[in-house]
Automatic annotation (TrEMBL):
Family listed: Belongs to the peptidase S51 family.
Naturally occurring in which organism (per UniProt): Niallia alba
Protein name: Type 1 glutamine amidotransferase-like domain-containing protein
Keywords (A to Z) from UniProt: Glutamine amidotransferase, Hydrolase, Protease, Serine protease, Transferase
Superkingdom: Bacteria
Pfam families listed in its UniProt record: Peptidase_S51 (PF03575)
GO molecular function, one term: transferase activity
GO biological process: proteolysis
């Protein structure tokens, strides 16, 4: 497994650029081929341009984009994009809107297969939640935040954008009211963790990555030292 999960932030901002620079280094190739999957943003073209400006012009990558909201890719096109990619980057946005077309096109299964085969995958916010047992996302049908299930590749709860006070408070409430036994990883914007089968690397500001646990009905919070 080679997986980078990012708490949030903008691709072109300095702190997040540092993370993306490290991700490209992890690929281990010159001019790597990157597949950007911006489904959670509804294939937003502004987001795609920002990604290309960063990864092509500044990080010397070759970028392909898999659009499955504004386009209707066939099976062979998706397979070829996956086969030829050195890095897959899953964008942020609406978690529910992301998961529906991924199931339709079987992208969820293809991503898991790619991870198991050793392809480096990075996901930010919604694109990171899917890999965990569950994650904290916005309640798109109302106010506040709720918990949604993921693929359980990492048997922990995940909270992106932990720097947002209302989101952090919602996470704390969910954990304490449920007396949860799972560890929770909470990442602020511009922070990331790189998981392999045996190691974890902290990328970005170490003061922005947190491990939360519920012990004796109390929330225990500590910085991640990886």
């Amino acid at each position: 497994m080679r997986l980078v999960v990012i708490g949030g932030g903008f691709v072109k901002h300095f702190d997040n650029f540092h993370i993306n620079k490290r991700i490209v280094e992890l690929v281990g190739k010159v001019n790597p081929k990157v597949l950007f999957i911006p489904t959670a943003s509804n294939d937003d073209e502004g987001y795609i341009k920002e990604f290309k400006d960063t990864f092509e012009k500044q990080l010397s990558c070759q970028v392909e984009v898999l659009r499955c909201i504004n386009e209707n890719p066939n099976e062979s096109q998706i397979i070829e994009l996956f086969r030829s990619s050195d890095l897959m980057y899953l964008g942020g946005g609406n978690y529910v809107n992301m998961m529906k077309p991924w199931k339709k096109y079987k992208i969820d299964h293809k991503l898991e297969e790619a991870l198991n085969s050793g392809t480096l995958i990075a996901g930010i916010s919604a694109g990171a939640i899917c890999w965990f047992k569950s994650g904290i996302r916005s309640n798109y049908e109302g106010e506040g935040y709720i918990e949604s299930s993921g693929w359980q590749i990492i048997n922990k709860i995940f909270c992106p954008h932990y720097n947002q006070r209302d989101r952090a408070e919602a996470l704390h409430s969910i954990l304490l009211n449920g007396n949860r036994t799972e560890d929770t990883i909470a990442l602020e914007d511009d922070s990331a963790l790189y998981f392999t089968d045996n190691t974890t690397e902290l990328i970005g500001d170490p003061s922005k990555s947190w491990l939360l646990q519920v012990k004796e009905n109390k929330l225990v919070k500590q910085k991640i030292n990886a």
